[in-house]
Amino acid sequence: MRIAVWGGGSLGLLWTARLTPLFPEAVLLVRTEKQRDWIRERGILLTRPSGEKERIPAAVRWIGEVVNESFDCLFIMVKQRDLREVAESLTAFSRPPSLVLLWQNGLGQDGPFGSVLPPGVLCGAVTTEGALREGPGEVRHTGEGTTWIGPFSEELAHPGIAAKLMGKLKDAGISIEWENRIVRRIWEKVMVNCAINPLTALLRIPNGGLLHSDDARFLMKSIVEEAVSVARAEGIALEAEDMLKRAEEVCRKTAVNRSSMLQDVERGRLTEIDWINGEVVRRGARAGIETPVNQTLVRLIHLLEMRRDPDE
Ligand code: KPL
């Protein structure tokens, strides 16, 4: 089975390191020739949660040289802002992949692919695994977790490909589950990200820091209540109390971690706010639901983004 991982960020490197021993034809697609050359020369250096290091030789290509290709399965592991470009590039493949997995945080990741892929190909992936990119080909697996994969549409066009992928990953001991209600899982993760990411980025504190302040906890509750109302309007029946508990549990379990949004702000990068709280605000407006707390957070993060160094 020909698998490609699109994106050389933390999760892209981690999953390439995992897939390569299982699928000898697996290939990583990266954005720059520099990263391609680095990985070609040295492979991927994976640091396991135990601290053990392993160098895994990996096939790697630069996106610019991928034309007339065909893959059975494509892991798309770039940020949401890059998805439109990825969707357009898929037209350069000789045939569409049979299975496409979208790994992005936030909501709306399937939008750009509606017109470029046949029905029954697109799946979402939600993961609680932690990974940190430490160099062009270096990744630290910071925390074990579970991954759920499931279709955005009712029926898969190529169920055999999905079954083969799941079977191999499970046999290799990777914690992965098939999830027919993937949109619900995506919303559940969005709740956690809405509650944790902007507050940690604004306050510049690790996730656990939110639990030490009544004000932060009050804001987390308000954020989640608004987002749950929007989810319910879309037919996803979540409970605000459960979602708040879940977000607080993540704060406890990842107390020393810096959220991805805080890391983006610290590195002067644009954040994913528009696809997390921003998407809640947009969908709320569409459904006639007010989301003032989420809206304020979106504006504050936009202001932080304006202060970043444009050359970074
Ligand atoms: O997914 C995360 C992120 O940082 O984006 C959380 C769950 C908040 C963990 O840090």
Automatic annotation (TrEMBL):
Positions of the Ketopantoate reductase C-terminal domain: 182-305
The keyword Oxidoreductase appears for this protein: yes
Superkingdom to which the source organism belongs: Bacteria
Keywords: NADP, Oxidoreductase, Pantothenate biosynthesis
Ketopantoate reductase N-terminal domain location: 3-153
GO cellular component, as recorded: cytoplasm
Top-rank EC class of the record's enzyme: oxidoreductase
Catalytic activity: (R)-pantoate + NADP(+) = 2-dehydropantoate + NADPH + H(+)
Pathway the protein contributes to: Cofactor biosynthesis; (R)-pantothenate biosynthesis; (R)-pantoate from 3-methyl-2-oxobutanoate: step 2/2
Function: Catalyzes the NADPH-dependent reduction of ketopantoate into pantoic acid.
Protein family per UniProt: Belongs to the ketopantoate reductase family.
Protein's name according to its UniProt entry: 2-dehydropantoate 2-reductase
Organism: Planifilum fimeticola
